[in-house]
Design goal:
Blueprint (H helix, E strand, L loop, with lengths): L10 E2 H6 L1 H9 L5 E5 L2 E6 L2 H15 L14 H21 L12
Parallel strand pairs: 1-2
Antiparallel strand pairs: 2-3
């Protein structure tokens, strides 16, 4: 017998359709997610709106770029930090230019 990740057999689509109103009320009140499936295989999961929002918020943040939390203490001035970053970038580009083209996976874009 196929088991879902939640450890129980999914509710058949026909049964979910018949009981949809009650199932929506149950998950909206914080009840456990309801796996729904066909032929014993999970095809969807009914969850409450709050749970959905909780699950999708981190994804939205991840798409917008890196997010770091915490405190950073600089041991130099911001100007010195920028200058050092530029210097390291130049060293990196110089090293790439010195590498034979055939050994590089991707040519340098200009």
């Amino acid at each position: 017998m196929y088991q879902t990740q939640m450890g129980r057999r999914p509710l058949p689509v026909s049964e979910a359709r018949r009981r949809l109103s009650a199932l929506v009320e149950r998950v909206a009140r914080g009840g456990s997610p309801v796996p729904i499936g066909r032929y014993g295989r999970e095809r969807a999961v009914l969850i409450g709106a709050e749970e959905y929002a909780r699950l999708t918020v981190p994804r939205r943040r991840a798409k917008s770029g890196m997010s770091l939390e915490g405190t950073l203490t600089l041991t130099c001035s911001p100007t010195e930090l920028i200058a050092e970053s530029r210097r390291l970038g130049e060293l990196w580009l110089t090293a790439l230019d010195a590498t034979p083209a055939r050994s590089r996976r991707h040519p340098r874009r200009r």
